[in-house]
Amino acid sequence: MSGGVDSSVTAKLLADKDYDLSAVFMRNWDTRDESGSDHGCEWEKDWEDVRRVCGVLDIPCKMVDLSREYWTRVFEPSLKSWESGITPNPDVWCNKEVKFGALLDRLTEDHGLSNTPWIATGHYASKDWKNHNGVSRPRLLRPCDVTKDQTYYLSSIPEHSLSRALFPLGTIKKTEVRELAVKWNLPTAARAESMGICFVGEKRKFHDFISQYIPPKPGPIIDLETGLQVGEHAGPWNFTIGQGAKVKGLKEKTFVVKKDIPKNIIYVVSGTDHPALYAQSLTVRDWTWIWADSPPKELVNPGGLKAGIKFRHVMSDIGCSVYSDNGHIRIDFDEPQKAVAPGQVATVYIENWCLGCGTIVDVA
To answer: What is the rounded CA–CA span in Å between residue 54 and residue 51?
Structure first.
């Protein structure tokens, strides 16, 4: 449980069924690393809300401190990515490494549990079981509320973790979740949704946060077409491909189109539909199929695997062809796509079935 309305309603749905149920709150970010004190931290409010909901539902709850695992498995790799000029997606790797990794391991080792634990979350996703060569295997599926689809964030979790996951909100729309919370008088019914990277939070700007860990590295911002310097940046990690550059003194809006990391240059173009903002294909490293031992056979066909792809959470999947190319995954778009950023996660779907994901390393 996170302290939000989604996990609160999830807990109520399960409490009404015959489960041996308890709640776990993950403390992932140790704010003492920043301020030297935990006083007034956001996690304290979240933990209090979890305890209030569990009190209403009469289920036990406990806090598990996974801040060390989060730091080493998610935050440090993300820092290295930002410093190298690419834009990582920590929330995807948090699900793989912490929620469905370290937490599940911790609970499995808990000798106080009589059975192998399952984890239920408030994610908007679904799951079913499919017979594959005589073996029943779990599939990660989109939820009924496609506007809240969170399979993108879950696309990196391995099959053995997915097999022990429950997604009770997969058949419920977000509007209904809020209505149910009000109907059941849950303490979090009116709580606003949280957005943004968990360790940055909503109240701070990314630049202010990241400057505590990476020293400024000023460099020029150059217009791609004219070759002229139009501004200066404080570090390439503050920019994402396709993002507005916010260069002062220019009459027209400019957008980041390229980063030259060795030379510490940010290139921009004017206008939202400049051709240089579009890509026809991308290459992915560290690709992981949820069914790791059964990648689609079509990958080696001349026409590749016909599928859908998302390279941002907030987008509809678009048509593509997926190829296995010398150990790498190459994905060709059916139509050119805008603002494809190295470091982000590419996730592949066949209709409603999410097959897996990898990290974008190059676009063309």
So the answer is: 5
